[in-house]
Write a structure and sequence with these properties.
By secondary structure, the chain is mainly beta. The protein has one helix at 7-11, and strands spanning 19-25, 28-30, 33-37, 41-46, 55-56, 72-76, 81-84, 92-98. The longest helix has 5 residues, at 7-11. Keywords: Copper, Metal-binding. It comes from Xanthomarina gelatinilytica.
Length: 99
Amino acid sequence: MAGFKNPDRLLDSNSNATTHTVTIFRMKYHPAQLNVKKGDTVVWINKDFVPHDVTEATNKKWTSKPLKQGEKWYRVITEDINYYCDLHKVMKGVITIIK
């Protein structure tokens, strides 16, 4: 098909990206501090018995839906992030981009 880019390449635009996992358990994010490279993906997995969300802290630019036990939420990281659970404001996390 002339004029079309390789569809596999479109799906894998950042082949050096890594996926990092943050587990939500016992009213905490584990790990609470995470270093990633720009373009990496973070997946939050709720293993707690109550719902939690992930909310950007500085300007509330984004928030996940409330995650029930076993649910996941993904975000590609493009900047340093401070975040918290809007349902349980004592829960906090930090993601820092490293070079």
